[in-house]
Amino acid sequence: MSTVRFWAFFLGTLTADQVTKSWAQGKASLLRENPILVLDFFDGPEAFLEFTYITNPGAAWSMFSNFPEVLTALAFVALICIYLFRHSLELEKVGPQIIFGLIAGGIAGNLGDRLFRTPAEVVDFIDVYLPLLDYDYPIFNLADSFIFLGVFSYIIRGFREAAEEKKAALASETSNSSDS
User: The dihedral of CA 107, 112, 117, 119: what is its sign?
Assistant: First the structure.
């Protein structure tokens, strides 16, 4: 079984995440005081997209901030499960290789922060404001984006496969009923 795409996406995701986090950490004090405006479509105090700097001991929306050890253990468990269940996850197919390369690379990127950065917290720097909802989305990083993209793709793939199976079952029923 060739898993070249999995490893390419895993390493690409991990590398992009760590390079951008190192950049943000190197400019931490500047980004905290003066975030870099990237995109601003609307008038008002909030920019649509800017780069800033925070660290987060928790998960998304700072959940489980008081339990960073649990999050670290869960990241290890998730990576081990992806490896152990690689056949069930169909990692011999192109789509799952890309999907799980993104997910595993993102998990490894945030896990690397928890293990090797001081403080042992995840570096976040992408700040998005959704003006139509008047909502300042929690600050995140590329690893978070890759995990979201992978999970969302996996869900969409599941819906598509279920629809194709249903269509095939209906075609089979139609074929069987016309044979009678």
Answer: positive
